[in-house]
# Entry
Amino acid sequence: MEKSCSYTLGTLVPGKQSDLWPIATSAPFRLLVWPRYDFAEELEYLFREFGSVARRHRRGLALCFRHDPEHDPPPAAARRALRRARRKVFGWGRKPSCCFVGGAIPERELPRLGRAVHAVAALPSANESERTAFYLALGVDLVADGAALESAYAARSAPPTGGWEVYGEARRVPVQVNGLLLELCYPHTPGILPYLHGVLAGGEYPLLAQPDYQARVIVDVGAHVGCAALYFATSYPRAAVYSFEPAQASYRFLEENCRQLPNIRCFPYGLHERDGTLPLRYGATSSMQNSLSISPDTRAEGETVDLRRASAELRRLGLSEVSILKVDTEGCELPILRDLGEWLPRTDILYLEYHSEEDRRALDELLAPHFHLCRARADRVHRGSNVYAARRLIERFPALAEPRLEAPSPARG
# Structure
């Protein structure tokens, strides 16, 4: 008897916190397909054009079949139609990797589904009104044929030109983040995994222990592969998290990891004091050291990255206030925060790394009118990380200021 494809029913459950990976496949590239299951010709075309590519890249590419109970035949009938078409095109040979995305999906949940796939197959039925509206709501690029899919898959899978070795081998490990089981994809280099585990456990960005505090907007500048974003997004599941990462390979890991949580948006560029491009130098031993600056921690090789003016980007996103701002940009923290000066009075918590004593002093001066330093760690001269709490936040939560002591004055004789 033929073994069937893994047509697993992976239903999106709106608002369900445990539903972190809405599609039942671990393939790195997911092509969403919504065919007319009652049109044999369309199903055969689907397997000839797109299924052939999926067969060649079976471990890396999955066909994810959308099944809508309102418009499609019952799931069992849809599966039978797919099997018939697949056998007609491929015979009894090797099958492409397939899965089902089933059940009714409210319109408000479609962007969430769009973040879980990488492209949509443009089939003849795509011009039907309900399918056209569905694809537009997803916000995902359509691929016209097998050649376009092959190109999209190759572009996503190919390493950036030059310097890939700094990222090492791509690995996946299961991780627990605030009690949720997630999968972390990361570039393996010596010593990186313990650090990433520390970020996911809250060691690098400790939360202020105020049970009534609820972050609403979190901005992560210098997101790397997304560990801080995962930690903040699971700590504050009702918050919107915006993650910025300019390095091409780091961004691919970031996007892959953050696709597991619906409240994270990723952007493939960095923030700075003005728009433009600059050479990013790869880290000497790890992608965590990537920097726009020349130092003993960077290499001569790298890539050119896109930068957006920080203040203009926050305005474009409609962010009038920021609950948590994390900036780790290997030396660009000061110009970024200067450009965000009008947001500083409207920010609750700042997580900053600094990379020179001069920057540390300038940052303290810039932040003093609106913040108190509440945590600090200096690993060595010119290197450290600080956490600042807004004065307005301390007024809301006076317990944050309880350790304060004042030096007694001697009584006058």
Q: What stands out?
A: The longest helix spans residues 40-56. Residues 110 and 138 are 5 Å apart (CA to CA).
